[in-house]
Amino acid sequence: MKKIIVPLDFSQQSEYALKVAVSLAKKHGSEILALHMLELNQAMITSTEGFHPEQTVFLIKLAEKRFNEFLNKPYLQGLKVTPIIKHYKVFSEVNEIAADHNAELIVMGSHGTDGLEEIFIGSNAEKVVRNADIPVLVIKNEITDFTINRFVFASDFKEESIAGFEKAKAFATMLNAELDLVYINTPGDNFMSSNDIYTRINNFIGKVNQALQVEIYNDYSVERGVLNYSKNNSADAIGISTHGRKGLAHFFMGSIGEDVVNHSNIPVVTFKI
Question: Is the overall model pTM greater than 0.70, yes or no?
């Protein structure tokens, strides 16, 4: 983990993420890429009608000054911190920055969303999760010393989930955490008999060629099952794969990974498959 991206918007939650990134950077010798996206848009930057260019320059300079002040933290001393400022918010650009800098992890804060706000707006963390190809670690609360001892990874254990499992296993190994694998069984059309579940899991184990122990947990929805299982087993963090669905497919089908990110009180790591 040589480079960690931390999107910052000067909020308390983004500083929580920054502190977690610092904790990881100190343990793994990582560089922190501090990313700030201005609340400008392309029209504001290029248009000469109704908005003067000098006003745009003033806003950019003001944001740069505030950003530098925000990064002037005692706990950042001794670490390599590279500030990156983008002129407006395009969440797919986080992925491009990760590729350009060979970053391996995004750490960001979130307060989560609920109800209509969740449906029509969504959180910034949700948008980054949807676009990012590298793992995204989402932080809700302040954590003084980020340590994961028990890492719950929920999966459907289909063949397409092998890539997500391999990433989660590597993440757990890197943090020296115990990897706790769980399958959430739900009622309705997605209900599976014990025999069918064990057949799927055994096929998965055969594909990855590893000795694995998988817990089966029953609940009314996958999201509730992941959260309840993690709480009941004193998990320090949750890992889950996400397809990163967009547009109408995302609206109608949803994304369990994004739902868990929004509603979990403990850190969540998403792995795109």
Answer: yes
